[in-house]
């Protein structure tokens, strides 16, 4: 789904203009960025958690030459989906597979 499609959907669903819907999405994006910079995480009930994660410096290898290289420390963004989101998107089979790995083998795709 593109941003234009999202704006159109929100405008139709809520009954506001497309300009107001775009401003709403832009403000939501700004809020997420501001909170991640300030607090380091933001939680959306039923959706999940966005958080900053610090990675330590480490030694890696250049796959082409095999030469060791130093990978510097950096901060990455991580999203952890909420259980409600995972269950609604992936269905009950995914939840069963997580709790009982043998159950996933017995569930067949149609």
Strand order of the largest sheet: 1-2-5
Task: Please provide the count of β strands.
Answer: 5
Enumerate the spans where pLDDT stays under 50 for 5 or more consecutive residues: none
Q: What structural category do the secondary elements indicate?
A: alpha+beta
Question: Which secondary structure elements does this structure contain, and how are they paired or packed?
Answer:
Elements: H1 3-14, H2 18-38, E1 41-44, E2 48-55, E3 58-61, E4 68-71, E5 74-81, H3 83-90, H4 92-99, H5 101-106
Antiparallel strand pairs: 1-2, 2-5, 3-4
What does this structure look like?
The chain has a domain at 1-38. It is extended. The protein has helices at residues 3-14, 18-38, 83-90, 92-99, 101-106; strands at residues 41-44, 48-55, 58-61, 68-71, 74-81. The strands form two sheets. It has a three-stranded antiparallel sheet. It has a two-stranded antiparallel sheet with strand order 3-4. It has five helices and five strands. The longest helix has 21 residues, at 18-38. The model has no long low-confidence stretch (mean pLDDT 88). 50% of the residues lie in helices and 25% in strands. α1 (3-14) crosses α2 (18-38) and α3 packs across α4. A hairpin with a 6-residue loop joins β3 (58-61) and β4 (68-71). By secondary structure, the chain is of the alpha+beta class.
Primary descriptors:
110 residues; 3-stranded antiparallel beta sheet; 5 helices; 5 strands; 50% helix
Summarize the structure.
This protein has a domain at 1-38. It is 50% helix and 25% strand. The protein has helices at 3-14, 18-38, 83-90, 92-99, 101-106, and strands at residues 41-44, 48-55, 58-61, 68-71, 74-81.
């Amino acid at each position: 789904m593109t941003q234009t499609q999202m704006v159109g959907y929100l405008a139709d669903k809520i009954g506001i203009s497309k300009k107001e819907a775009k401003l709403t999405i832009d403000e939501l994006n700004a809020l997420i960025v501001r909170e991640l910079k300030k607090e380091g995480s933001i939680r959306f009930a039923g959706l999940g958690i966005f958080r900053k994660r610090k990675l330590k410096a480490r030694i890696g290898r250049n796959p082409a030459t095999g030469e060791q290289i130093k990978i510097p420390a950096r901060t990455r963004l991580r999203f952890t989906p909420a259980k409600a989101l995972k269950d609604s998107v992936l269905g009950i089979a995914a939840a069963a597979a997580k709790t009982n790995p043998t159950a996933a083998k017995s569930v067949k795709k149609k």
